[in-house]
Every structure is written in structure tokens, then in C-alpha cells.
Amino acid sequence: MTVRTRFAPSPTGYLHIGGVRTALFNWLYARRHGGQFVLRIDDTDQQRNVDEALEPILHGFKWLGMDWDEGPDVDGPYAPYYQSQRQERYQAAAQKLIDDGLAYYDYSTNEEVQGEREAAQAEKRPFQYSRKWMAETEEQRKAFEAEGRSFVVRLKMPREGKCEFTDLVRGELSFDWALENDHVIQRSDGSCLYHLASVVDDYEFKISHVIRAEEHLPNTPRQIFIGQSLGFTIPEYAHLPYVAEPGSKRKLSKRKLEKYLKNPDFKKLNEHGQGIAERMNLTTTADSFNPVIVDFYEQVGYLPEAILNYLVLLGWSLDDKTEDFTVEEMIANFSLERVTKAPASFDGKKLFAFQDRYIQKLPLKQKTAKMLPYLQKAGLVAEPTPCDVGPKLGQIIEACGDRLKVAGDIIAYADYFFVADEDMQYDEKGFQKRLCKAGAKENLAKFREALAATDDWSKENLDKVLHQFVEAAEIKIGEIIHALRMAITGKPVGPGMFDCLAIIGKESCLKRIDQTLAKIDASCAS
RNA sequence: GCCCCCUUCGUCUAGUGGCCCAGGACGCCGGGUUCUCAGCCCGGAAACAGGGGUUCGACUCCCCUAGGGGGUACCA
């Protein structure tokens, strides 16, 4: 049997991180078994601009490298892959169920059924529809219609026995048929509902394994009933635990951002990304730019492999120690048997740690290629790229070392390397602390002369020059180096001092020091 | 209300009756190193939800309770 799995996104305009985890498990399972991964679009007839709302989702999949074998843009033998274009099939299935006596026309009103439901609740017994308005003959239909009633189609569920099936994650499961309701499968306007559609599609697409979130577990008996009634082979089922909210066990949702931001780790992750977006002058909205949405990570400069590695461990593990997996290793090792049963909450810190590890492993050339566009978006480097930028950026990235956690971090670290001397911005707090203190100006002025007399501008030599200066002046190294950093970078923190001096170059360094000396007179209260 | 699922350090997890006074990872705390930051090195705290069984022996099996989550739509 060929393994075929599917993921069924609805065109909402964004790709949700929890959805990606579910999709990832489907994708890995298909790839692991040499099968196919299908993307089926859960749209409805009413939805407008489906293409527009779908595009960011498909883009997200592409960015992560999760390719699909059939679906939008990839035609396959079972097209169309849009549910809105498959209504006739669902209607035919509904008709067949009626013809076989496994579904029926129901002429009840909403209020009538709701009344029965409330009565059952009041008596603390399970609700079971009385089938009072069920019409199984033409005469009954005519009679109800004469009353002016309209109909829906309901499943005629069994009222005894058990529905038993094996879930690949949870094992043997058993549900009482009598507790299942006569669910509506076709609305009064003739359109069909999700459960019917889903079962019909899974069968027609020859899906072998339905791997989906836990919320569908209680729906499974009714889907099995539909499938069996239609004479379909029933797929294997695997119900995955949720990706839960940060620090909780509740299902992660798209619209509760406010609440998640109260979680310190989530907040930090978000603020870090927002900072980068600001430096790129990106206009963001909470709806489209936050850590619950995959696009956030792409914009900010995370690596897809890091995201995937983090996500695969949300509910799955190989053993007691392996944490790092390349995509190939994930594919080679993934199994449903090792999926956990309990929900896993989203942990921004851990995701960030994976990102850190992955980006540090990246060769300099690739880092440079990934980071350059960020400097351009921030307006620090022209487009097309001037030819001296590449080597310089390489030096900067090397100097920054593991301070750069995501590609977008380069902006904050590299701005003073690319900005004109006279446009350099000073961090005011740092300026006060490091340059407005006694002796700072004098030391800086003296060291300027030492630098002016230096021709060998290599960082090794600069290191030597500074140490000689410190010794001669009989001061501690900290007394000059912090002032110097402020003077030539404008910031209190950054890469190694000698790297900075070397990269900025003699001419600019002297100019910046002069500028700074002038500013000390202007800005420091005496 | 009814039905279903779940429950090991703060978080992700390992553990399928003795290898576990519970292992790894992220984070956290303390100390050291460095020109700042980021690191790096050393050390540390931190969990089997509770109660009954079964067994020579239970994190592992059974039952109950509690807690958490989900479903119960002419939503998906």
C-alpha cells in the first residue's frame, strides 16, 4: 500500500505554527515511507479571494521546504483539490446514504432539536434525537412540506454496539454508537458539511493515513460510520496532541496574542522580532506578524531548518538524547509510534536556542548572503550591492561571532560600520556613562594621538598600541576602551574593540573620535 | 450536563516491572574568564498529580479521586 497523507489548510491568510507541526508530521510520514503528501484546500463556496488568502500559506510551506505532491499548483490524478469545487461529489454521497437508508431527510427546526438537547441536559442524560421529524417515505416528506418545513440530511447513526478502532498514537479506542448524534451532513441550502466532505475526499484522494490534531478524535466514529456506509476502505488514524499555549496546556490559537504576550518568553521572542521589523521600516500588524505565525520567522531571519527541528520535537522524540536533526535525519527516523499523547506547550526560548545553534553552524559565506538583504532593507547598503560591501560584511559578521542569532540581528550590529561618520548616532545613556566621566575626554584625546601615529592598522597591531598606551598612561584598560567604543561606534556594546577599529579604518576612526571630543564639550554637564 | 483524551524537573522529553534515591535538552541560579555584550569553563537547584490495589519489587500494570484539555453546531 502506498502511504498517502494530507494536510487541509483553510485559506485564512496566514500559516499557523501549530498547523505547521501537524503538516510536518504528515509530510515526514509520507516521505519516510516513500509516499505522497497532498494539500487539500478547505475552502467554502462563500469565501472570496481564496487565492490571495492561500498564497501566504503556500509560501510558508515552500519556505520551510515542505513540498507537496498534489494540491494547488501541482495537478494530480484526483483533482480538483479545492473542496469548493467538489460539492457535487459530496451531494452524490449524501444521496447514496439516503438511498441506502443510512441517512434521512429531517424536517425539524433548529429550535425543536435544541429543545430536545436542553431537556436531555436538564435530566443529565446523554442527548439522542427523537427522530420525530425524520421522513423516510414520500408521504411523510409531503406531509412535512405541507407544514411549510424545510429539510436537512442527517446521518442515521447506529443506536447500539460500539465503534472500535486503533489509533496509531493512542492505541485501541472504543466509543458507544448510542452516544453519537444524528449529525447533519447536508444543510437546508443543499451544501454539504465538513465531516462528509472530509471522508469523501480522503477516500477519493486515496489517503492511507489520516494524521491530524486531537480535536478530531471525538469526530472519528461518525467519520468511520460515513466511510463504512459508503463502502469505503477506512484509513488509519493518528491523532496528534496539540501544540499548546506558552506555559499552558490549552490549544494554541491565532487570536489570543494579547494573552500570550503576558508570557515573558513569548514576549521576548516577539519584541526581538518587532525590533528587527522596525529597523527595516516594516509595517506590521499583530494579525500577520507574531510568533504564532510562520511568516514572522521568515521576515526576521530565522532558518527554516531550525524551526523544523524545534517543531519536530514538539510531540515526538527519537530517544533520550538526540536533539539535532537535519531534515534527512527527521525523515529517516520519524515514526508515529514515538509521538507523545500529551500536549506540548510552545516554548519561545527553546526555539530560539535551536535557531542560535543552527545559525552558528552556517559557513560565513552563507551567513553573509542571508544577512546582506537585511542591511539593504534597513537602507544601510545600496542596491545593487557595491562591490566592496561583501568582504566588509564578511569581516563584520566574523567579528560579531555568535552575537548574531537571527539574520535580522545584523542591522543592529552593523549600522555604524556602514553609516557616514557624521551620521553616526550615539546611545545617550552610554555616552553619559562612558564619556562624561572625569578623565574620559583627556584619555581619549591622548589615545587619538597614539592612533594618529599608527600606520599598521591590523587588529593585532591596534591591540598592541592600546596596551602600550595603557601601560604608559598608567590607567586600567577599561578606562579607555569603553570610551573608545562609544566614540567610534556610538554604542556601549558590540564586537571586539580591535575588530571594530580595524573594520572602520583609520581615517574614520580619527574623524569619529574628533567628533566625539566635540560632543563631550557640548553634551556633558560640567 | 453528557462523551472522549491526557497527567515525569519551569518547558520539551527519556523511561514498556528490578539497569532510576529517575537520564538528556532548553531555561534558571552560583563561581571563574574576557575590553562591553555574546560566549566559554566549573558547580548547583529542579519532576514520577494524590490514594488504593497487584507484585518479592512499581514512573512503569489495574481501580478510584483530582487536575488539565477537547468534543458535544445547518464551524472546520
Structure description:
This protein is α/β, with parallel strands linked by helices and 526 residues long. Helices cover 48% and strands 9% of the residues. The chain is built from 22 helices and twelve strands. It has helices spanning 17-32, 50-64, 87-99, 110-122, 138-146, 194-204, 220-229, 257-260, 264-279, 294-300, 304-312, 327-333, 348-361, 364-377, 389-400, 410-418, 428-435, 440-452, 459-473, 477-489, 497-504, 506-523; strands spanning 4-7, 36-39, 103-106, 134-135, 152-155, 162-167, 171-176, 184-186, 209-213, 236-240, 243-244, 344-345. A four-stranded antiparallel beta sheet has the order 4-3-5-8. It has a two-stranded parallel ribbon with strand order 1-2. Strand 6 and strand 7 form a beta hairpin. Helix 14 (364-377) crosses helix 15 (389-400) and helix 14 (364-377) crosses helix 16 (410-418). The chain is elongated, with a radius of gyration of 32 Å. The structure holds one RNA strand of 76 nucleotides.
Briefly summarize what is shown:
The protein is of the alpha/beta class.
Question: What is the topology?
Answer:
Elements: E1 4-7, H1 17-32, E2 36-39, H2 50-64, H3 87-99, E3 103-106, H4 110-122, E4 134-135, H5 138-146, E5 152-155, E6 162-167, E7 171-176, E8 184-186, H6 194-204, E9 209-213, H7 220-229, E10 236-240, E11 243-244, H8 257-260, H9 264-279, H10 294-300, H11 304-312, H12 327-333, E12 344-345, H13 348-361, H14 364-377, H15 389-400, H16 410-418, H17 428-435, H18 440-452, H19 459-473, H20 477-489, H21 497-504, H22 506-523
Parallel strand pairs: 1-2, 9-10, 11-12
Antiparallel strand pairs: 3-4, 3-5, 5-8, 6-7
The chain binds one RNA strand of 76 nucleotides through α4, β7, β8, α6 and β12.
